[in-house]
Specification:
It comes from Exiguobacterium mexicanum. This is ISL3 family transposase. With 373 residues, the chain is of the alpha/beta class. It contains 14 helices and 9 strands. It has 3 domains: 109 residues, no CATH class; 111 residues, Nucleotidyltransferase, domain 5; 120 residues, no CATH class. The strands form 2 sheets. The protein has a 5-stranded mixed sheet, sandwiched between helices. Strands 1, 2, 3 and 4 form a 4-stranded mixed sheet that branches. The longest helix is centred in the middle third of the chain and has 18 residues. The chain is elongated, with a radius of gyration of 30 Å.
Length: 373
Amino acid sequence: MSSDEEPNVFPVIPDRHDIPCPLCQRKTILHSKKRRRFRHGHAWNVGVLWIELDVPRQRCTSCDLTFVYDYGLGLVRTSTEVFRKGIAKRCHGRTISDVAREYGLPYTTVERWFYQYASVETMERATQVLVDEFATRKGHHYATIVLDAKSGQLLSIVPGRDVAAITAALQGISGDIRSVVSDFAPAMAKAINHVFPEAEHVLDRFHLVQFVTDALRRRRRFLNEARRHHHVRVIDRSLARRPETLTGEDREVVRSCIQEDPFIRNLYQGLQHIRYVLKATCEIQAQRRLSDWLDRYQFHPCGPLAKIAKAIRVREQAMRQTIVSRLSNGKMEGTNNKIKLIKRRGYGYRNLERFFLRLRLEIGRQNSNHELW
């Protein structure tokens, strides 16, 4: 029990027992002891909870070794291992500076405890996964990340974005994998077919539509923007949005762009046609619509459409599975934005292992609430 003068300090009297030598396991004798206090917990309206006990310094009678005995509490300076692990747990989902400020601890101390005791909790089994790449240093270094499609929790992360890195990332997960969602990168398809040959390879719809919208944007920049009567962003937004969501002014912008340039007209028609293909509800309908789209645009005089059709022809089986499947890469795109925020919040990470550890602790955690401890 604590005293009335110091309600947050609890004296501890350990039981008497023999302390063996850590080297030879022989009998030791008490060399000296000192009364010390250690942080052991935290409570609201009270603050830090301290324990006070006599820390013995033992000497071995056989090998003459002198050591400090910590009763298995992990005593280091002024804290126990329970307190350090609790502080590391409080850093989940929060910045280290906020935790250090809340508990009145140095930032470097909390940072050291976090990277020392932070546990890596990953799901052992999954059935549907998302695979993508992100930049650890934009334009220089990249990494491959695998998420669970249902919960969004990080399953595996590996530096690099080549076939070997993607293969290593996929091999790091376990379970009966039935579906894998990725972009149109050839390295992704090769690694997925090698690791999970029986799984369905689903391509991301967003990247497919983005191919055409990017071609529209490049064509618009190729034309002389000074002759246009509308703002550049208005033109890009009007050409990229679905026709049924356009306002009267936006429809007029699209009509003027289509009448001005046949190249833009072909791209816009191809974009609406691919959206019609993606609305198929069964395999037979998806196969028929996709075949019609490929027959129309595979040898089209519009270069970007012919290039996109060629990329789809190579992945025709995966494309049919994409049309029927309801899976998407939406959670992965949101995760990429969160990774950018984590990098910006930490002003970059020089240590890649600590950066990956931080991502494991931040991304897709199911228990985000922090209870009192």
